[in-house]
Amino acid sequence: MDTVIRINVYRLLLTIFFLFLLFSNLISRIIGHNLNLFFYAWWLLVFYYSIKDIRLNTITLTWAIVGLFLIAYIADPAYILLANVLTIKDFIIPILSFYIGYVLSKSPQNKVVFNDINILYFITIFYAIVQEISFYSGKLGEVLPWDAEYLSSILKGPNNFLQPGGLLRFFGTMNSFVEFQLVSLFLGTFLWLNREKIKTKKLLKLNMILMVIFLSLALERSPIVMGVILLLVWNIKNLVINYKVLLRYVFVSSVVIILLLVNIDFLKSNHLTTGAYQRLYNAITLNLRNDQAIQERVNEQWKQALKLARENYFGIGPGRLSPSAKNIYPKGYIGPHNNFLAVYLAYGLVGLLLFLILLLLGMWRLSYIKDDYRFFGYGMILAYASMAMFNMPYIGKQGICFFLIFGFLCGQKLDRRLQRNRNTGKHFPDRKKELLTQISNNYNQCGC
After folding, report:
1. CA 23, 25, 28: angle at the middle one, nearest 5?
2. Is residue 376 a contact partner of residue 409, using CB atoms and an 8 Å limit?
3. How many of the other CB atoms lie within 10 Å of CB of 396?
4. Can you state the angle between helices 2-31 and 145-155, rounded to 10 degrees?
5. Are 102 and 60 in contact (CB under 8 A)?
6. Are the beta carbons of 128 and 138 closer than 8 angstroms?
7. Block mean pLDDT (10 aa), the chain, length 448
8. Which of 21, 112, 237, 417 has the largest count of CB atoms under 10 Å?
9. How far apart are CA 386 and CA 389, in angstroms?
10. What are phi and psi of 162, to 5 degrees?
């Protein structure tokens, strides 16, 4: 009886956690009161429930050491204590969310949790598309007045969510375009990765279609480029050994390119899309010298951050890098638009090395799990690292999403065959022979 109650409590905790993750900002806009404090309080409850019975191993112990290091830096005298405390939200909570995903991977209830997330995901992605259509049709204020009011308040400030040319960087059910678009991309593909655990397959497929529609209408280059990186790495093995998968990707890519070419004049001339189109075009063609955002980073933000990095090997205080703390002392805030630089400036050279060790240790762990999970993990790490060179994807809710999924992947059962082959030094020859055999068999079937 106690076991049944405990299982149901765990499911309830996780489901409400994902509900808050996806909807706390939206509900706050609707009711006029900030619920984020409840979200982080609930995160703490889920975190405690997750770690109280966790077993220590190389992965979990290393994560604990790094977590304690980051917590100790709250007392860094280099900056205001209150600002440093607020870094818990931006830096520490995302990294420690690894444990929530790690324990979820081993829970017998993860199937029902995935089904709950699948339903919540449908609501959030459907809402985001309604928001987009309302904006494009000029009826945002009529359909979603709380979003229109929020957008209006943003536009009154010196910085806003509008692209040059007027396209809204859609924030969906969250308050930031980066947060929502990355969470929608990686949480959606994470559900697809675990599709065998989900009963409502039709709803899952609908969610994938809605995700593509949302990201296409948003026309924001960061999640699009990250999505391409994720899909290529995730499916790299199938693309090489299975000609049918390769042809399918070529067909889909050709359709997308044709649609872009057909609508290119509209995208370039319409005041709602011209800025976003140019940013996406610059990214695809690597025309970075003429990209205003990149040049601002090179000439101002990175230049300032690198100068501070060379002068401060122990960091300048994590509070100076925390978006949540910038209102405490705006003049002290530094926005390097590079997550690795931000970690260095916040926690010094040692902090950056520890952060990189976490990523590398996780990649080592992924190398021992089954292919689908392994290559998804590699793709996610590469996609986030690519964006981290230009933005801050490891912080906030998009950071929670990354490390939670990372923890889930690292918690997967190890492939004993891979372990055995590596221990005997036979892994690479065996895998190479196996792959070559698969490639030969598949392409012989098509007469290639």
Report:
1. 105
2. yes
3. 23
4. 60
5. yes
6. no
7. 62 94 93 89 94 88 94 89 88 96 91 95 96 89 90 67 57 81 95 95 96 88 90 86 76 75 76 77 79 81 87 88 76 85 93 95 93 95 94 93 96 76 54 55 53
8. 21
9. 6
10. -95, 135
